[in-house]
Every structure is written in C-alpha cells, then in structure tokens.
Please model this.
Amino acid sequence: MHTFAILLIVTVIPRKYVNGRYNGRQGCELMLNVRSPAVQEHAVVKPLKHSYLSGLATIPTKVVSSGGTSHLPRPYAMVPAEDQERSTLSSILDSREHWWISRYLQQLQRIPPVTGLYLMSSTITALLAWMVNDNYPFDIMQFDMNLIKKGEAWRLVTPFLLFGPLWLSHIFMAQSVALYMSSVEISYCAKPEKFVELLLFGMASISAYGVAESLTGRGDMTMMSAAYHLHTYMLYYWSRINEGSVVNCFDLFNLPAEAVPMLFMLQNYLLYREFYVADIAALGAAYFYFYFLSDTAAVWPMRLLQNGFFKGLYQRYNNEISR
Model:
C-alpha cells in the first residue's frame, strides 16, 4: 500500500475562464489540484446541469487523470469517466439558453406525461380538423345527448379535447393548460396516481353537470366548452396548493394566487360578455376534491399506477425536488 498526502485546493471561478476554457452560462467549475508523488493531475467537476443551482458546488464523484486511468491505490480508485460529455438535446438547449426558441423548447421538455398527452391529443385533433374538416371540430367528437343515449358514450369525454379552432384560441388555451395543469401534475410527482384521480374527478363532475343541463332542456353549452371548464377546475386547484403566493399579472399588477381563477373568469366576461354557471360548478368540484379527497388514498383503479413504468416517468421531477 502506498501512502499519499493529498492536498485539495478548490478554486471556484464563476462564469469566467477555467483552465483556458470558457465556463459558459451554467455556473462554475471546480478545479482541484491533486498533489502527490504519484498524481500530478487536475480533477474537474462538471458544471451543474440546472442553471438555478449554478451557485452550488458538490463533492466530486469522480477523480480522473488526463490519461483516463486513476493512479490512486486500488481501494480508493474511482471509476474513470469519459473525457468528453456526450451531446444531448438538453445540453444543447442549456448551452443556447439565451435563444428564445431554446427557452421555449426547454419549457416543452418540462411538461409532465399526462399533461403532455392531453395537449398532444388536443393539438393533433385540431390539426386533423384543420386539414380535412375546414378547421371545424369533427362531429364524432362533439357532445350530443341523443347519440349518447344510443350508446356513443365517448362523447362524454372527447369534448374535453376541443380547445377551439387551430388558431389563437387554441394556442392561448394550450399555453394556459401547459402552465397551470403542468404545475399541479408536478406537485403530485411522488403520487402521480392521485393526479390522474384529480383529473378524472374533474372530468366526471363537469360531464355530470353537462348531462343534467342537457336533460333539463337548458342546452349543451357546458359540454361545448368542456375543456375551458376543466381548465377552470385545474386553475382553482392550482390556486389552493399555491395559496399565499403572489402572481404577477401581465406585468401590470400583483395578485394573490387564490384570486387568479376569479380574474380568469372576469377576463372572459369582459372579453366575450359570457358568464358560465358551469364555471361555478367546476370551482365547487375542485373545492370539494381539495378539502375532502386530496389527502386520501387513491381509489382502487388508480392504485394500479403506483408502481412500475408510469411512476418511473416522474423520477426526474422527484430528483429535482429532493436536491
């Protein structure tokens, strides 16, 4: 066994040049000078991946010589790493984060699975309608109580995919859903089955109200705008889990998070002169779930999602929160 006296001199150089290399926008690198009779090398700790953690440094997990082979005694030798980091889409976007398109694509990468599937299904549906149906929703996806009575039960679900024609209304709706629904889903990353339960509870509540409205002869307005009411439902739930936070609205004024759903409803009234009683029903359903069901165990079908592939999709969000 060899005896080594190792002196680690750690120099933190933020956002400048490190050993002749530009450090970029990702934080800092740690240069560790390792002095021993056998080792005269530099160990480099790569910059942290996430820019909001750029000011933090961690103990290196790998000590590698420039030749790729450790000169430390075998009991203390660490696993060699590759000299060059493989290029991935995330690393490319991180290195170009000053481009607006990079920031936009990074936000798309952050959309969690269920919200992403919901947005993708809605967008594909709208795109197909634009291509072959004159940008009008397919009849097979619209709510029709008479056809539902004949067995076409999918019409209770498909209206939630209709954000409107593939133009500004669809884009604004998709952007808002991506912001608020994604936030709620990520908050359930440790128990994703509860988010699925929350989503299905909202859809079932709004569909039940829409069916009751249709059966009483008050029309089909609720189910014609079912996606909008589901968004109101999610927005209220988001406001409850972020209660106490302050939200900047249009860079004009600040508002408590719990007041955002009311602002959203007021905005639609001012722009379209429309007020939906179904929005009140959606708020009531979200209120009920938050106060009476959010802390309970998931119902039996949802428990099947507690393990396996589905829960693994949320591992990266759990890792970020646990840091």
The radius of gyration is 26 Å. The chain has 13 helices and seven strands.
